[in-house]
Amino acid sequence: MSDAMISLERGDWQTLGNEASEIRRVVFIEEQQVPQEEEWDGRDDACEHFLVHLDGRTVGTARLLPDGHVGRVAILSEARGLGLGQRLMEAVIHAARQAGHAEVLLDAQTHALEFYQRLGFTAYGDEFLDAGIPHRSMRLILN
């Protein structure tokens, strides 16, 4: 991993949408069996998008909604466990802070709660199903 080239990219749906949508298609629609109509919610044009690249290949994505919610965080299976999700989320959190948000909110799949807790997020509310997958709402207060 120390010899790997990691880069982050930040932009709008027009610029990054093709690559982001391919990652989301593989992770959410194929792997997790999320119905296409739930994945493509019509909100992407209003979001800021983020990509993470490993050795020139796009391997992850996330989006930041105008209200400070983070969503559609996805890393391809072959790139998981390399710290790329953390780098991606740090970029999203930085962007939220730059935009003046007081907090960052997200709905985490329950298997990813520890990942987000390590970034400083705290869970609140009851567990709920989204696309048939258990989730919890989480919040990170920005200082």
Automatic annotation (TrEMBL):
Example GO molecular function: acyltransferase activity, transferring groups other than amino-acyl groups
Enzymatic class: transferase
InterPro entries, per database record: Acyl_CoA_acyltransferase, Bact_Acetyltransf, GNAT_dom
Matches recorded under PROSITE patterns: GNAT
Keyword Nucleotide-binding recorded: no
Protein EC: 2.3.1.-
Domain N-acetyltransferase: 6-143
Protein name: GNAT family N-acetyltransferase
Pfam families: Acetyltransf_10
Keywords from the UniProt entry: Acyltransferase, Transferase
Organism annotation: Cobetia amphilecti
